[in-house]
Inverse folding.
């Protein structure tokens, strides 16, 4: 797995295993274990997903079985910051650790900006980081104006901004801004819930490169320097999704994929979603 350095010097895998909209339970724990067994070292969850316990079970089972050491994993969760105070945010972090049965997280994110609901929670994240209770902190679904507002008072620049990102939503202005600020983008819904996979251009490139349609999109993420966290509960696809580091997409084909951008979202717009 290729890794990238965050702005605080820690390494984060460019490819991870996402668990959005996956029900808590034994099946998820089994899939997390399987993903780790297959070489995934980054696991992404969130408090609002309601599945941190099963994610933690899969992680701890893999550690106990000797498949991986805790320090070799990169575990992310997110705080659902709907009106949380400074102290409530710190308590939410402790609750996530308790559910996952972990001593620390590698990355903890503010899940949505909301209408100015992120400053107090982010201040709590900064304290958690300064107290060395979390390895890195960041945000999710922040647009440029949210980041500008955050950075006007923050003492720590977010390491990561996790956003919806795929060929139909390339977020060019945001990518330019975060690159300038040293914030790495991470793609959620990289396959647009599967909607992208019927596009003729992807079918053409799949044939050209001898890779699946999903692998083309995930490789496109990587070549843009964007971390990606595809979700699957199918063993063959979990294996397939990680097999993207043995080829490159030609610059002309990268540009053709970029030109699919029409601003289409599969999730809510951050300026309109106020949970």
């Amino acid at each position: 797995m290729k890794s990238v350095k965050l702005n605080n010097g820690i390494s984060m895998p460019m490819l991870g295993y996402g668990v959005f909209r996956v029900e808590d339970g034994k099946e998820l724990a089994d899939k997390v274990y399987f993903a780790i067994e297959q070489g995934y070292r980054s696991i992404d969850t969130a408090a609002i997903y309601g599945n941190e316990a099963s994610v933690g079970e899969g992680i701890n089972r893999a550690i106990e079985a000797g498949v991986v050491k805790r320090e070799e994993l990169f575990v992310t969760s997110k705080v659902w910051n709907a009106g949380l105070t400074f102290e409530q945010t710190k308590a939410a972090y402790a609750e996530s650790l308790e559910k996952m049965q972990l001593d620390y997280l590698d990355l903890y994110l503010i899940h949505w900006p909301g209408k100015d609901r992120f400053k107090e929670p982010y201040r709590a994240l900064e304290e958690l980081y300064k107290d060395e209770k979390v390895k890195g902190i960041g945000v999710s679904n922040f647009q440029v104006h949210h980041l500008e507002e955050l950075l006007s008072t923050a003492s720590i620049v977010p390491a990561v901004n996790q956003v919806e990102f795929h060929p139909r939503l390339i977020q060019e202005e945001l990518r330019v801004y975060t690159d300038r600020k040293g914030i790495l983008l991470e793609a959620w819904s990289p396959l647009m819930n599967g909607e992208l996979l019927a596009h003729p251009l992807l079918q053409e490139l799949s044939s050209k490169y001898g890779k699946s349609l999903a692998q083309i999109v995930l490789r496109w993420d990587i070549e843009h320097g964007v971390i990606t966290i595809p979700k699957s509960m199918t063993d063959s696809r979990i294996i397939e999704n990680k097999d993207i580091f043995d080829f490159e997409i030609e610059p002309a084909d990268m540009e053709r994929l970029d030109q699919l951008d029409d601003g289409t979202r599969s999730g809510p717009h951050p300026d309109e979603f106020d949970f």
In short: The longest strand covers residues 74-79. The mean pLDDT is 97. The two ends are 35 Å apart (CA to CA).
